[in-house]
Amino acid sequence: MEFHDVVRKRRMVRNFTDEPIPGDVIDRIVEAGQHAPSAGFSQGVVYVVVTDKEMRQAIGEIAGEEHYVRDGFDPFISGAPVQIVICTSEQVYHDRYNERDKRAEGEEEIDWPTPYWHTDAGASLMLILLAAVNEGLGTAFVGVFDPPALQKLLGIPEEYLPIGVTMVGHAAPDRKSGSLKRGRRSLDDVLHRERW
Ligand SMILES: Cc1cc2nc3c(=O)[nH]c(=O)nc-3n(C[C@H](O)[C@H](O)[C@H](O)COP(=O)(O)O)c2cc1C
Question: Is residue 181 assigned to a domain?
Fold first, then answer.
């Protein structure tokens, strides 16, 4: 698929068929996510892929699926045949930025201008979403407001914060998010040329 089409086709899909996704397709999608840039090449982003139905159900519960269903959405979190939990470790970045090439002797660790571990997780998420679309699949992402519950369920070490759950599968007709009523801001609204 043309890159432009992949970008334009990507949207959060909130209903999936239960058709399974072959393992090599899942691996290609995660591999694309792992090809994201990372600060200092720290690579502190790690993935847990879940296909087991009961586990998907449990993840759906933690991610508040019942609230979506109550609002008229399909159970798209547990219903997706593949869930990818993207996790990021702040510690990996501190460790990397204390290595010799990043911190000269006698210097302090950098004053982090933004939490790069989240920047990198977002970059990886985006590649995963686009890679899934490129495979002809639908995809979505939801935040999780109880990360420790997800860590406990999946055995994720405390150091790795799950940033949310990404769903991948064959798209089915879905209910659109109310947020879309806002419409996308125009390019003129968000693009400042030469200076703000
Ligand atoms: C960081 C982040 C968190 C999001 N959290 C949720 C969420 O918890 N539930 C949900 O239904 N959609 C969530 N979304 C999807 C947005 O609502 C969606 O991207 C936005 O409405 C634009 O729609 P589109 O992605 O289909 O173009 C999230 C998106 C991002 C990037």
Answer: no
